[in-house]
Design brief:
Belongs to the peptidase S41A family. GO terms for molecular function: endopeptidase activity; serine-type peptidase activity. It comes from Algoriphagus machipongonensis. By secondary structure, the protein is an alpha+beta fold. The chain has 4 domains: 28 residues, no CATH class; 89 residues, PDZ domain (Pdz3 Domain); 202 residues, Alpha-Beta Complex (2-enoyl-CoA Hydratase, Chain A, domain 1), CATH 3.90.226; 102 residues, no CATH class. 37% of the residues lie in helices and 20% in strands. Strands 5, 6, 7, 8, 9 and 10 form a 6-stranded antiparallel β-sheet that branches. A 6-stranded mixed β-sheet has the order 12-13-14-17-18-23. Strands 3, 15, 16, 19 and 20 form a 5-stranded antiparallel β-sheet that branches. The chain is globular.
Length: 536
């Protein structure tokens, strides 16, 4: 059966054995109260909204990850994991209250009709959508729809006075969860996984096969800031890296049917050769399943910072009105028996603020700030000590580098000024890049001072006040960020990561650690091995 990251797929719901009289009494009380409110309350109320509010608050009293998704949001939430959706096929942004086409998606209906990067969507089905405070959710509602349905879109294009009208027939649009796959050098392959969706395993397998055909002998799997998704995808991906019968993950719940263990059972396509997995504080759920399986089976090296700490499994339950309940039905455990779930209590705000607490405590900057409870000590297959109690602690800790960033750069990017500048620059300089390969771009193209000052001017238009001190501090950092985002606009996501990884401290450190990764994979016994952090 397939399990999903918080979501367990393929089960027939079995009602737990409980005191049915108490349940009936509780339901009767709720119905009684709602009847009085509907009939006698002094003001008119929307009883459906009131019930939905009550459901949300009720689930918050259980755990941080049980949730209720209203019918109006359920299909959109599901599409994030399905690997495809029905729509017109554009990546969009909202800049100065106007919908901009960042890029038409390859193979989609918008690309086929000739819609271009930088086009502004002014009307949808004769309704003006510019300058009215449109939101991302509004754009989804307007442009997504059943395959085969048609939507009329009026577009403003630079250097053309009149709006251009397109009748776009919606189609299936694939969403990719492997955002980058490339060879770092002659031996090292790199795969960036941004979420675990329905298609992620197939994408992962294809990426490995492609990289192996190019000579890959060492692999980096980047799970930084990957929030999770389908557990089944993580299990299948681990199976491609682990030997047969290696335990990948187990889960335990109150109901027996939710108790399972997943083992590697197929010959994997990369069971030999050193593996390094990159994680950070944003790596959660299915990301922790995969990294925990690699770590506990001593298959490779985990590099980065302690992961988020989500070890609860949710079952998706479709409700009669189209809404969805995601109910926690089990906890999952890594092969050594660790629960990765970080502690939580009744105050979920504290749980959500854990990131800030870690930052203030100094955990992002020093591994010594993290203390482990000896009662949560476990051993890997080859005898290394690992700890449960909240997230995956990497084998090699890499501190967060904040020296290059600044508040001004953050404001600049949060205002979408960078996106606006990149779109405009790419459109104005198409001829310059037409015959330039990504390798040539990475090695030879430089974001010069004139480009940075143009970006500063765009920022001023978006009410981002210029800060000379922050600008000087972060100038080199800003060059890389602009170059990376321009690479994505000109080429693809792989190009973005090829450039931006030059300032990714976890990635850069990982490239130096393949000897240690190989040592872990090849050793028969690691009880006396101490992995040393290299001095800079």
């Amino acid at each position: 059966m397939a399990i999903s990251a918080g979501i367990w797929i393929g089960a027939t719901f079995a009602e737990p054995k409980s005191n049915q009289n108490d349940l009936r009494a509780a339901l009767y009380k709720l119905q009684e109260i709602m009847t009085y409110i509907n009939r006698d309350y002094v003001d008119s109320v929307n009883t459906n909204e009131l019930v939905e509010f009550g459901i949300t608050k009720m689930l918050e009293n259980l755990d941080p990850h049980s949730s209720y998704i209203p019918a109006r949001d359920a299909s959109l939430a599901q599409s994030q994991l399905d690997g495809e959706f029905d729509g017109i096929g554009v990546e969009f942004g909202i800049i100065r209250d106007t919908i901009y086409v960042v890029a038409p998606l390859t193979g989609g209906p918008s690309e086929a009709l000739g819609i271009q990067s930088g086009d502004q969507i002014i009307k949808v089905d004769e309704k003006t959508v510019a300058g009215i405070g449109v939101t991302n959710r509004d754009v989804f509602d307007l442009l997504r729809g059943p395959k085969g349905s048609t939507v009329k879109v009026d577009i403003k294009r630079k250097n053309q006075k009149e709006l251009i009208s397109y009748d776009i027939t919606r189609d299936k649009i694939p969403q990719y969860s492997i955002n980058a796959s490339y060879m770092v050098n002659d031996e090292v392959g790199y795969i960036k996984v941004t979420r675990f969706a329905a298609t992620t395993y197939d994408e992962f397998k294809s990426s490995i096969e492609d990289l192996k055909s190019k000579g890959m002998k060492k692999l980096i799997v980047d799970l930084q800031s990957n929030p999770g998704g389908y557990m089944g995808a993580a299990i299948n991906m681990a199976d491609e890296l682990l030997g047969q019968r290696a335990l990948i993950v187990s889960q335990e719940g109150k109901v027996d049917q939710y108790n399972q263990k997943a083992f590697a059972y197929r010959p994997g396509i990369f069971e030999e050769g050193p593996v390094i997995v990159l994680i950070n504080e944003g790596s959660a759920s299915a990301s922790e399943i995969l990294s925990g399986a690699i770590q506990d089976n001593d298959r490779g090296l985990i590099v980065g910072r302690r992961s988020f700490g989500k070890g609860l499994v949710q079952l998706p339950i479709d409700l009669s009105d189209g809404a969805e309940l995601r109910l926690t039905i089990a906890r999952y455990y890594t092969p050594s028996g660790r629960s990765i779930q970080k502690p939580y209590g009744a105050n979920h705000e504290d749980y959500e603020m854990d990131y800030i607490k870690r930052f203030e405590h100094g955990e992002f900057f020093s591994a010594d700030s993290i203390s482990f409870n000896d009662s949560l000590k476990y051993n890997t297959v080859k005898g290394r000590t690992v700890y449960g109690g909240g997230g995956i602690m990497p084998d090699y800790f890499v501190p967060l580098d904040t020296t290059m960033n600044s508040a001004y750069i953050s404001r600049l990017f949060n205002s979408d000024s960078n996106r606006e500048f990149v779109l405009d620059y790419a459109n104005k300089n198409k001829d310059k890049f037409e015959d330039m390969t990504i390798e040539e771009y990475k090695d030879k193209f430089t974001v010069n001072d004139a480009m940075l000052m143009e970006l500063v001017e765009v920022g001023k238009k978006n009410n981002v006040k210029f800060d000379q001190v922050d600008f000087n501090k972060s100038k080199d950092y800003l060059r890389i960020l602009v170059k990376a985002h321009l690479a994505r606009q000109l080429y693809d996501d792989s190009a973005f990561y090829m450039v931006v990884n030059d300032i990714n401290e976890i990635y850069q450190q990982a490239l130096k650690l393949f000897d240690q990764a190989e040592q872990i994979a090849m050793a028969k016994d690691l009880t006396d091995v101490d992995l040393q952090e290299e001095e800079e």
